[in-house]
Design brief:
By secondary structure, this protein is of the alpha+beta class. The chain folds into 2 domains: 3-190 and 336-390, 3-Layer(bba) Sandwich (FAD/NAD(P)-binding domain); 195-330, Translation factors (Elongation Factor Tu (Ef-tu), domain 3), CATH 2.40.30. The protein is built from 13 helices and 21 strands. The strands form 5 sheets. Strands 1, 2, 7, 8, 9, 10 and 20 form a 7-stranded mixed beta sheet that branches. It is elongated. The structure holds dihydroflavine-adenine dinucleotide. The site of dihydroflavine-adenine dinucleotide has 34 residues, from helix 1, helix 2 and helix 13.
């Protein structure tokens, strides 16, 4: 015997819950299945526990994909303003931290409660701790064998997310289903993830763990001007997380340590006015003191200005503006915020998120090859793709 629903959604995360309430409000009977013990775990840990739930400046240019036009339609139809209206309707206090980035004032729990309340109002059923054993296409719909029993549905929505943070329930389930139904997978990798460093550089920088300041980092044509954070393991902070989505193993990062300073002029001026001072004294005016000294030691800039030739100052300016760092790797899925790549969107309708040649099968959220920049864009994609599918599933 199977329990029958109009719509079954696999994954009780941001995209799945949004899709569930949208479909439920249309009068569809909706069941959400998830193998984790609680819904929305990533929402709870997002934004340092305060969930950066959207970005007011969100545009399709904030996303990486092999098929960059795919996200346009859903993002246009469900904008940050729409989600903000929902947040306001639920009386959730929020604040704009960096430009456009909206966070909960109190706790990310507020966003999860909003989604669960909406699901409740829309008569959505939620079954946690459910392992999906098999999915088969069956007549006009799908048949699921699970650890909570057998189910049938007309529309099956895969909202099982990407591979980041396996301890939070991440799995490759969605990619497996995509392959089962003949879809292509764009190769995946960890993104919005800290870098690890080669042992020597790591050792040199380790005592500076905790130091953070704004830099401009570039790699493969992408440029971000945001804070960099030195950690015990390597380099992190918004600048490094952002650029990690564009980095491939073996690539070097170019870090401009003083993007707002005319470095050459400053160095020549310093040699003229304070010839006995050292390079680190100059750098201390702009960089955290600890970092300025350690960076000069690393580069072996030990002589006072008076002994620096023009070529020396030119070389110093070059390093400060283009410090080339070749990461050893990244911290991988263990700490990554998102997964780059995923289900190839070329096989899907950008209007409905359904698979063109497989009626009733939908993919939404992070499982798709649509990856946002840091700053609330990934949740905006979860909301927008969830609503798009919820209107048709
Ligand atoms: P999500 O991963 O949220 O949900 C997938 C669900 O599917 C999970 O509940 C999982 O248990 C379930 N599932 C997986 N495999 C299954 C299986 N085999 N069977 C049954 N169920 C299965 N984004 C942002 O915009 N602002 C932010 O502040 C942050 N902050 C942040 C911090 C950290 C630490 C992380 C890891 C990530 C973020 N993100 C973020 C990214 C954001 O969390 C992410 O993009 C969305 O949660 C994706 O939503 P989905 O619903 O697609 O997947």
């Amino acid at each position: 015997m199977s329990s029958i629903y109009d719509v079954i959604i696999i994954g009780a995360g941001a995209a799945g819950l949004m899709c569930a309430s949208t479909a439920g409000y249309r009068g569809r009977s909706v069941l959400v299945l998830d193998h984790a013990n609680k819904p929305g775990k990533k929402i709870l840990m997002s934004g340092g526990g305060r969930c950066n739930f959207t970005n007011l400046n969100n545009t399709p240019a904030n996303f990486l994909s092999d098929n960059p036009h795919f996200c346009i339609s859903a993002l246009k139809r469900y904008t940050p303003q729409h989600f903000l209206e929902l947040v306001d309707r639920h009386g959730i206090e929020h604040e704009e931290k960096a430009v456009g980035q909206l966070f909960c004032k109190n706790s990310a729990k507020d966003i999860l409660n909003l989604l669960l309340t909406e699901c409740d109002w829309a008569d959505v059923e939620l079954k946690m701790k459910t392992n999906i054993d098999s999915v088969l296409s069956h007549g006009n719909g799908y048949h699921l064998k699970t650890s909570s029993g057998n189910f049938q549905c007309e529309s099956l929505v895969i909202a099982s997310g990407g591979l980041s943070i396996p301890t939070m329930g991440a799995s490759s389930f969605g990619y497996g289903i995509a392959k089962q139904f003949g879809l292509n997978i764009i190769p995946t990798s960890a993104a919005l993830v800290p870098f690890t460093l080669p042992p020597q550089l790591k050792e040199r920088l380790a005592p500076l763990a905790g130091v953070s300041y704004p830099v401009e980092v570039s790699c493969n044509g992408a440029v971000f001007r945001e804070p960099m954070l030195i950690t015990h393991r390597g380099l992190s902070g918004p600048a490094m997380l952002q650029i990690s989505s564009f980095w491939h193993p073996g690539d070097a990062l170019r870090i401009n340590l003083l993007p707002s300073v005319s470095v050459s002029d400053g160095l020549y001026e310093r040699r003229r006015t304070k010839p006995h001072s050292h390079i680190h004294h100059f750098l201390e005016e702009f960089l955290p003191k600890r970092f300025a000294k350690a960076f000069c030691d690393l580069q072996q800039w030990n002589k006072p200005f008076q002994y620096c030739q023009n070529e020396d100052l030119k070389a110093i300016a070059e390093v400060l503006n283009y410090w080339e760092v070749q990461p050893a790797g990244t911290e991988g899925y263990r700490t990554a915020e998102v997964t780059l790549g995923g289900v190839d969107t070329r096989d899907l309708s950008s209007k409905t998120m359904s698979v063109r040649n497989q009626p009733g099968l939908f993919f939404i959220g992070e499982v798709l090859d649509v990856t946002g920049h840091l700053g609330g864009h990934n949740f905006q994609w979860a909301w927008a793709s969830g609503v798009a599918a919820g209107q048709y599933a």
